[in-house]
Q: What sequence folds into this?
């Protein structure tokens, strides 16, 4: 290597180092270090603030015997089931409808996307009002199915979780729709022209052109959804508080309760670590499965 | 040169004088956001106006879990206030965590306070292992509010305008049935939420002479089932409101759609203000009727405490200022009583002004029958017990969970957190 190019190479490394350092430092301080501390804390009897004494696997033993933990894990799974696929499906459906529109497209797009821009507290307050047993406008619809009586949806164990899931989909579907629209617009028009020349109907076009070509986007949306929904906390905390009789308690809420209410930092860290592992394993499995889906 | 020296001496003296005249700032936290919060602000303003040497800098934070979490973290990192309000029911969890600084009798005597000036029950609740950790400002309990016009129209009031024949469960239920049949309104409005559910449940438990938690065990048992069944029957028989939240339960009473309402004394200002605006009927409030063997009413107390922060200890001049604030607030708590509360400072309760204050004087009898939350780290305001009440007692009220099952699950849930 000539000395000149070596010097340039060195300068490139220096520049890259300068550019990457600030982020790396912040990442180490605010992400890696707390993660490391969480793992460490989960083997202690630490309170909410401060470090405790090492107590081996006691927190994990407690976790295995804690029926509320298993309940919360089950409820989280139920919520994931109620949201991940429906949220993706509705996103795709709305995207397919919106791209067909011409003049009012941006207006419809905005209408679907607006809820996504609202903070969670506004979303939950809105739906609390809409579903209020006394004054809620949605009760006019619900009463049709309940012999004219209002349904206290957030206090009914059968309704609570599905309604939390519904509110979540209403809130988040706009973002998925946007991703799908981008994906749809990236598919070359020529495929569609060729297909219609061959006399393919809409269903066939969707089945053999849109769906396979859109698959990378679908896989992305499903993965993002899975990770986001496993972390469910805000909507449950604000809408039901985990009730009625623990029918909506989720893992993160149990962690919050143990850390901030029962002052058990160590135990809460153990719960967090388990959720961390669950999310990691679930996303890896999903990624693998979806990739095989794409290869077909 | 000499001039310069005298000038500098003058400057030093002036600066010292300024420092000396600087009032001591007392950082104050409370969680009083409702009608009583307005009254507390007025008291703080009056204190500041009448004291040149001490100034209170007050902040009102959100009631409940957010408040108590913030206290924990602030004490740990040395960002805690100099004085704060604290529920006595939270002492069983706060004191073992080392969050509170104890008071000595000498410190209190220095500002003219003595433990003998407080009710025995509150001092007992404020004392852990022989040390007093809080100075009670008030006692607040639940009471039975009633609409005089409706109760009068069905002949349930005596000559003094007080409800008659409410004691004993059968009599109380018969009276409610009468209201339902003859006046055609909901007899009793109660919130289907953790707070009210717990407070009524715990009162009815106490009226049977039973306790809720002993040590690490939930011992409500049969008495618990009876208490909850009583409440559930009210709802299922149409004697008490079906699913309503806190504000709706108040609205039902205020609009005359419900004849009676069980809620905390802190709602007194609400009715007083409505009545002053000419928007409310004649109303009254009485101690919760004795439905079982003995009188008992759930109660709690707002107490003043000093955070026990190693990083930012309250001592010296600051401590004196805080003690002065506590003393002044206690001695001027007659105005605080207009928020419905019973003052914690007995001389104020004994005063003629308080004895003539309505509706407080009518329900003041409950002070002899108060039942504080259980002495357990899982009990108290915004505690796991309150959560469990919302999670399990409320669904039982709405008929979604069998009563026995609710009590059994409550035991299971709280005991698992006590382990």
A:
């Amino acid at each position: 290597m000539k000395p000149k190019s070596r010097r340039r190479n060195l300068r490139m490394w220096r520049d890259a180092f300068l550019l990457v350092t600030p982020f790396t430092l912040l990442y180490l301080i605010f992400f890696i270090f707390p993660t490391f501390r969480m793992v460490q804390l989960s083997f202690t009897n630490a309170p909410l603030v401060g470090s405790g004494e090492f107590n081996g696997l006691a927190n994990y033993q407690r976790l295995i015997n804690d029926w509320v933990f298993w309940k919360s894990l089950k409820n989280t799974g139920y919520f994931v089931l109620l949201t991940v696929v429906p949220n993706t499906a509705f996103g795709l459906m709305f995207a397919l409808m919106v791209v067909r529109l011409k003049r009012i497209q941006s207006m419809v797009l905005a209408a679907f996307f607006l809820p996504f821009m609202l903070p969670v507290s506004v979303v939950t307050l809105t739906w609390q009002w809409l579903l209020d047993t006394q004054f809620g406008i949605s009760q006019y619809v619900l009463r049709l199915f309940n012999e004219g009586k209002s349904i206290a949806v957030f206090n009914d164990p059968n309704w609570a979780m599905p309604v939390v899931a519904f509110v979540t989909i209403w809130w988040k579907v706009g973002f998925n729709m946007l991703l799908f629209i981008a994906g749809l617009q990236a598919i070359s028009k020529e495929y569609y022209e060729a297909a219609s020349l061959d006399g393919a109907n809409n269903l066939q076009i969707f089945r053999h052109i849109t769906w396979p070509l859109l698959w990378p986007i679908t896989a992305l949306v499903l993965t993002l959804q899975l990770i986001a929904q496993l972390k469910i906390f805000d909507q449950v905390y604000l809408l039901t508080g985990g009730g009625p009789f623990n029918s909506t308690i989720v893992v993160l809420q149990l962690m919050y309760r143990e850390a901030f209410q029962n002052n058990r930092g160590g135990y809460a860290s153990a719960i967090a670590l388990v959720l961390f592992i669950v999310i990691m394993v679930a996303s890896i499995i999903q990624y693998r499965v979806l990739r095989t889906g794409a290869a077909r | 040169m000499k001039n310069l020296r005298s000038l500098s001496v003058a400057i030093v003296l002036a600066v010292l004088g300024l420092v000396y005249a600087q009032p001591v700032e007392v950082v104050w936290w409370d969680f009083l956001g409702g009608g009583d919060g307005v009254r507390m602000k007025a008291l703080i303003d009056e204190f500041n106006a009448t004291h040149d040497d001490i100034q209170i800098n007050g902040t009102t934070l959100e009631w409940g879990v957010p408040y108590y979490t913030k206290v924990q973290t602030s004490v740990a990192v040395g960002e805690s206030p100099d004085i704060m309000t604290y529920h006595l029911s939270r002492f069983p969890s706060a004191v073992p965590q080392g969050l509170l600084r104890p008071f000595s009798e000498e410190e209190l005597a220095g500002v003219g306070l003595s433990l003998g000036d407080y009710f025995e029950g509150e001092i007992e609740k404020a004392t852990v292992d022989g040390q007093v950790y809080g100075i009670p400002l008030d006692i607040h309990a639940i009471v039975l509010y009633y609409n005089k016009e409706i109760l009068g129209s069905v002949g349930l009031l005596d000559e003094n305008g007080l409800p008659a024949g409410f004691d004993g469960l059968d009599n109380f239920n018969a009276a409610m049935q009468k209201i339902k049949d003859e006046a055609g309104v909901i007899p009793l409005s109660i919130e289907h939420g953790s707070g009210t559910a717990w407070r009524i449940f715990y009162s009815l438990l106490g009226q049977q002479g039973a306790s809720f938690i002993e040590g690490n065990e939930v011992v409500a048992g049969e008495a618990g089932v009876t208490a909850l069944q009583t409440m559930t029957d009210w709802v299922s028989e149409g004697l008490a409101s079906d699913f309503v939240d806190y504000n709706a339960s108040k609205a039902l009473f205020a609009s005359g759609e419900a004849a009676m309402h069980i809620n905390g004394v802190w709602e007194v200002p609400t009715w007083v203000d409505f009545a002053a605006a000419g928007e409310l009927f004649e109303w009254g409030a009485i101690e919760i009727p004795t439905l079982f063997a003995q009188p008992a009413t759930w109660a709690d107390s707002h107490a003043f405490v000093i955070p026990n922060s190693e990083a930012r200890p309250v001592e010296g001049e600051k401590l004196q200022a805080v003690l002065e604030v506590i003393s002044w607030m206690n001695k001027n708590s007659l105005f605080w009583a207009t928020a419905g509360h019973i003052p914690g400072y007995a001389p104020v309760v004994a005063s003629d002004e308080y004895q003539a204050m309505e509706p407080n004087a009518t329900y003041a009898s409950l002070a002899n029958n108060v039942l504080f939350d259980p002495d357990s780290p899982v009990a108290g305001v915004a505690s796991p017990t309150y959560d469990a009440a919302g999670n399990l007692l409320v669904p039982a009220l709405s008929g979604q969970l069998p009563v026995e099952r609710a009590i059994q699950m409550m035991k299971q849930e709280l005991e698992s957190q006590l382990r």
